[in-house]
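User: Can you predict the 3D structure for this chain?
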Amino acid sequence: MFIKDHELKHKTLGDKELIFELCDWSDDAADPVYLGYVTETGAWIIKRINSSLRQIRWARGSTDYATAWANKTAESMTYGLYNSIF
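Assistant: Here is the predicted structure, written as C-alpha cells:
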C-alpha cells in the first residue's frame, strides 16, 4: 500500500520522478523562512518563503545538501521561480 505523505514533494527531473522529503526548516519567526527537502539519492531543494515580499523561490542541487542548507542565506545561493528551477 502506498501512503502519500503531505510533506513529501514529488518532482520529475528529466526522466526520473524523485520524492523529496522535508528534513529541515528555519525559525518560523524569521522572514524569510526556509524549508529543506532531500531525496534518498542526495538531490535537494530549498524553498524560501518571504512573507514581507509575498514571494516563494526555489533552489536545487544534486549533491551536498548539508553545505547547501548551511549556505541557504548566502548571496551565492541562487533562487528562482518554480518554472525556472524545475
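Residues 47 and 58 are 5 Å apart (CA to CA). The chain has a mean pLDDT of 84.
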